[in-house]
Amino acid sequence: MFKNNLCFILLVVLFSCKRVNMQATPALPEPVRYLALGDSYTKGESIKSVQSFPVQLVDTLKKSGVQVSSVRIIAQTGWTTKKLKDAIEAAGLKDTFNLVSLLIGVNNQFQGRSIMEYQSDFEALARKAIQLAGGKKERVFIVSIPDYGFTPFGTEKQYLITPQIDIFNQVNKEISDSLGLTYFDITDISREGLGEPTLLASDGLHPSAIMYKRWVDLMVGDVVKKVEK
């Protein structure tokens, strides 16, 4: 009888220890599978591809101890919202990403496309981004449109460009808020370009690697929290 009781007590103790150990080991976050959607500002026009903001963001995440398994960038210079929608459709993407960014709209403004068209397209793209993030809106973030009126290329028409960029950003911010998405406003940083030439690429229009680093510094804290959930 004593031996049986002793065996029973030992089994209870071992089972309890196992449960404690299982509870004390938190699940590790999934490696990041990042999808960046956009136009020239996501591609990194006029700089090396490794200097673009998505690649700099990934490098910074890695330095913070975050595992990154893949990065895919779907972005080209000159793309409007419609062009981006078409490109996503053509790519046949699946919802296998756990971090998705969206920055689009400057070419809608530049080409004189209507704000109504932008509103409709942007909402569709934002919802698509959520779908591609496995339906998890907390894994999606929106980046505001930079203001190229504060570049040598756009300075002569700044009085027209800047108010229009503000309107486009008001639309994408409202849609972002309505869908519960994280929104990073980098537009003020872009407006420092004329005063700080090092913030601009050699083409006098697009951001330099230095400006993109400023964007990443603004984003990375919140992005790390997203991928660690």
What does this structure look like?
This protein has helices at 2-24, 40-43, 53-63, 81-91, 106-110, 115-132, 158-178, 187-190, 209-228, and strands spanning 32-38, 68-75, 99-102, 140-143, 182-184. With 229 residues, it is α/β, with parallel strands linked by helices. The protein has a 5-stranded parallel sheet, sandwiched between helices. Helix 7 (158-178) links the parallel strand 4 (140-143) and strand 5 (182-184).
Overall mean confidence score, pLDDT: 91
Q: Give the helix/strand class.
A: alpha/beta
Helix coverage percent = 40-55%
Task: Using the coordinates above, name the CATH class.
Answer: Alpha Beta
Topology (SSEs and partners):
Elements: H1 2-24, E1 32-38, H2 40-43, H3 53-63, E2 68-75, H4 81-91, E3 99-102, H5 106-110, H6 115-132, E4 140-143, H7 158-178, E5 182-184, H8 187-190, H9 209-228
Parallel strand pairs: 1-2, 1-3, 3-4, 4-5
Helix pairs in contact: 3-9, 4-6, 6-7
Give the structure's gist in a few sentences.
This protein is of the alpha/beta class and 229 residues long. It has helices spanning 2-24, 40-43, 53-63, 81-91, 106-110, 115-132, 158-178, 187-190, 209-228, and strands at 32-38, 68-75, 99-102, 140-143, 182-184.
Keywords:
globular, 9 helices, Rossmann fold, 5-stranded parallel β-sheet, 229 residues, 11% strand
